[in-house]
Automatic annotation (TrEMBL), chain A:
Locations listed in the record: Cell membrane
One of the Pfam families matching this protein, by short name: BPD_transp_2
Stretches that traverse the bilayer: 12-35, 55-80, 92-110, 136-156, 185-208, 220-246, 253-273
Record protein name field: Branched-chain amino acid ABC transporter permease
Homology family: Belongs to the binding-protein-dependent transport system permease family. LivHM subfamily.
Location (main, coarse): membrane
Alphabetical keyword list: Amino-acid transport, Cell membrane, Membrane, Transmembrane, Transmembrane helix, Transport
TrEMBL record, chain B:
Pfam families for the chain: BPD_transp_2
Keywords: Cell membrane, Membrane, Transmembrane, Transmembrane helix
Membrane topology: Multi-pass membrane protein
Subcellular localization, as worded in the UniProt entry: Cell membrane
Protein known as: Branched-chain amino acid ABC transporter permease
Protein origin, superkingdom: Bacteria
PANTHER family in UniProt: ABC TRANSPORTER ATP-BINDING PROTEIN, HIGH-AFFINITY BRANCHED-CHAIN AMINO ACID TRANSPORT SYSTEM PERMEASE
Coiled-coil zones: none
Length: 284, 338
């Protein structure tokens, strides 16, 4: 039962980070392998704010989210926008380059060692329910994940901005003709994607750890979520994240000698059986 | 390539194109010059030759056939481990047998994974390649009794080449060995690319939808070239094992898959020579940077990725492209048209 709960919690954390990738990769169609770099940025901002300046945790998380968003906007304006029409290969190479640069910068600024985080008192400890003992931090991740999931679902599915974004992605020329400022929509969407990465990276330091190799180490996980969940589907990403979280935690608990192998296998099998993902629309 | 019968006579472009141009012969004097110019740096030159072979293997699938993969290190790793396990567990130290075994193992891995790769396209294809690479890495990481896990597989002892030349401390044998293998496999790749089979691959890259109308079994062709490239990558991995006498888990690393992609793009995809030029350029840059700045070289490598994509990809802008064109003009005696 605890394993199930931990699995759901780590799945939710995975969702928090990957939901941003669902926006940039899934919706906007940029193969942004550097997504983890934005999450790492969020993580470092949060740790530095907490440890060095003693800023309260919620504010530190907010700062992490905003700085990742700012980095996202800057990079979108400067470089990513040039790549919208470019081939896959260019996007792949570019974002790998960004990963390397971010890793080198992180190592230079903070050293290669993992960064510890001191969670505030109210996130530590356990709560004893009648049938299960749960960690407060993990419960917090689950709640936060659900809040983000619902918000995103509504933001993209219901609001005017969501409609504009979907229009801008599907038919940029027509969207422009209808008076939608496609450029701005893309900047905002990219900022949201990066912000979510920063948020996930900040709250996830405790569970995932934080060191300069972060963007590469978890890259495959983030991609799996989006690919298994189906491009641009937040429900899909949520289900995929939770499933992967449970599989991963259970797999590492019951058959530690196999490790992450299960997850990669699940992904490859999934791609073979349903290339469009669990909830994805078949590609047009 | 055997088994491919062209219904029509090969066009003139195919006939007579097989002759080696003087500039090509000139290019292949470079390894000889390297031997005399850098006698202390032969291990590095050996690494360059191995990297060139690996990039050449990627060029077959990506440059020629147009399949984007981000998991090519999978086959490099299979070859490296195969060549390492043969002497380490079976006591078979003959290097050439090792190469054959590595090529066979990697080709088998390629044949097994090709249906997976051909199932999807675009992003899902890319992801499958990443996934296969990650699976193999994790398998090698966890199967510590067989592979040594993160500690690597040490003590790979090879017997002398042809029973005559042993692998010496200065890496002389290793260098000549690697260069000769590279040259032979390059010669073969050159023939393959110029064969009707190779031409059909280029057709698939340019317009996969039209090729079936010309009677080309697209998926079968891609599966064959995928398997062939896997074997090439396996040989490259085996060379690394044999010349360093060690297998590290890094042979399967994601970095390696990404790096080889950059090397090929840096040199120019689809020309075979691009892979070689890219390897020389990249490895030299890497070596210099790591010398100058051992802490921070990754930053510069990353920056090269970014600059290449942003400037060197679209036209003559960017130093990389200019140098590449210059070199290509010199080597091939014609302008880089693509």
């Amino acid at each position: 039962m605890t394993i199930l709960f931990d699995g759901i919690a780590s799945g939710m954390l995975l969702f928090l980070i990957s939901s941003g990738l669902s926006v940039t990769l899934g919706l906007m169609g940029i193969i942004n392998l550097a997504h983890g770099a934005f999450a790492m940025l969020g993580g470092y901002v949060c740790v530095v704010a907490l440890d060095r300046y003693g800023i309260p945790f919620p504010v530190a998380v907010l700062m992490a989210t905003l700085s990742a968003a700012a980095a996202g906007v800057a990079l979108e304006r400067l470089v990513y926008r040039r790549l919208y029409g470019a081939g896959q290969l260019d996007q792949v190479l570019f974002s790998i380059g960004l990963i390397f640069v971010s890793m080198a910068l992180a190592r230079w600024l903070f050293g290669p060692q993992p960064q510890p985080i001191r969670l505030p008192g109210w996130l530590q400890g356990q709560v004893q329910l009648p049938w299960i003992e749960i960690g407060v931090y993990r419960a917090f991740l689950i709640v936060l994940g659900l809040v983000v999931a619902v918000t995103l679902h509504r933001a993209v599915g219901v609001t005017r901005f969501g409609a504009r974004l979907r229009a801008a992605v599907d038919r940029p020329a027509v969207a422009r003709g209808l008076g939608i400022d496609v450029d701005r929509v893309f900047v905002v969407a990219f900022a949201i994607g990066s912000a979510l990465a920063g948020l996930g990276g900040a709250v996830g330091v405790e569970l995932l750890g934080l060191d300069p190799s972060f963007p590469l180490r978890y890259l495959v996980y983030f991609l799996i979520v989006v690919v298994v969940g189906g491009s641009g589907s937040f429900e899909g990403s949520l289900v995929a994240s939770v499933l992967i979280g449970i599989f991963d935690v259970a797999g590492k608990y019951y058959v530690p000698q196999v490790g992450s192998f299960i997850i990669y296998t699940v992904m490859v099998v999934m791609l073979i059986v349903r290339p469009q993902g669990l909830f994805g629309r078949p590609s047009p | 390539m055997t088994g491919v019968v062209s219904p029509m006579a090969a066009p003139a472009a195919l006939r007579g194109a097989g002759a080696w141009k003087p500039a090509e012969l000139l290019f292949w004097t470079l390894p000889v010059i390297g031997w005399f110019a850098f006698p202390e740096n032969l291990p590095l030159l050996t690494q360059i030759a191995i990297t060139a072979l690996f990039a050449l293997s990627l060029d077959l699938v990506l440059g020629v056939a147009g399949m984007v993969t981000l998991g090519h290190a999978a086959f490099f790793g299979v070859g490296a481990y195969a060549a390492g396990m043969l002497p380490a567990y079976l006591g078979i130290g003959d290097p050439l047998l090792g190469l054959v075994a590595a090529a066979a193992a990697a080709a088998l891995a390629g044949a097994l994974t090709s249906p997976l790769m051909l199932r999807g396209s675009g992003l899902s294809q890319l992801m499958v390649s990443v996934g296969i690479n990650a699976m193999l890495y994790e398998a090698a990481n966890k199967a510590t009794e067989v592979t040594g896990g993160v500690d690597g597989l040490p003590g790979v002892e090879n017997t002398p080449l042809f029973g005559m030349w042993s692998f010496d401390l200065y890496g002389r044998t290793a260098y000549v060995y690697a260069v000769v293998v590279l040259l032979l496999l390059f010669w073969m790749a050159r023939r393959v690319v110029r064969s009707p089979f190779g031409v059909s691959l280029r057709g698939i890259r340019l317009n996969a939808a039209r090729m079936p109308a010309l009677g080309v079994p697209v998926n079968r062709r891609l599966a064959v070239v995928w398997t062939l490239a896997a074997a090439y990558a396996g040989v490259a991995g085996a060379l690394l094992t044999q010349t360093t006498q060690f297998v590290s888990i890094n042979v399967l690393g994601f970095d390696r898959s990404a790096e080889v992609l950059l090397i090929l793009i840096l040199g120019g995809a689809g020309h075979l020579y691009g892979a070689l030029v890219g390897a020389v350029a990249y490895m030299s840059i890497h070596h210099l940077l790591a010398d100058i700045d051992p802490e921070f070289w990754q930053f510069w490598i990353g920056l090269i990725f970014i600059v290449v994509v942003l400037f060197a990809r679209d036209g003559a802008l960017g130093a990389a492209a200019r140098i590449r064109d210059l070199i290509r003009n010199l080597i091939l005696g014609r302008g880089a048209s693509r």
